[in-house]
Design goal:
With 89 residues, the protein is mainly alpha-helical. Helices cover 54% and strands 0% of the residues.
Length: 89
């Protein structure tokens, strides 16, 4: 696998990881006992920390991309293993 392909796969996995990490640890203003700004949505986060999301997404994407690269190299799971048509009889 070329390094550019590996980088593209990492970028895709990172974006998916970032979206998966967004809701973790977020609390609303009501849950934190903070005062709300007039007109603010009740579901608006009161403790959003984007760098925490970036760090978590980076770690998760590195692990998942590493597993993908190892699977690509060693061939643990192939296309034939994912054939669901043979499960339906």
């Amino acid at each position: 696998m070329q390094w550019t392909s590996f980088l593209a796969i990492y970028a895709l996995v990172w974006v998916l990881s970032a979206f998966a990490m967004l809701p973790l640890g977020i609390r609303t203003h009501d849950e934190l006992g903070m005062e709300k700004v007039p007109g603010q949505a009740d579901s608006a986060p009161g403790n959003f920390r984007p760098w925490t999301v970036v760090l978590r997404a980076t770690i998760l994407a590195a692990v998942l991309t590493g597993l993908f690269a190892l699977n690509y190299h060693y061939g643990w799971v192939g296309v034939d293993d994912l054939d669901v048509t043979r499960l339906v009889a």
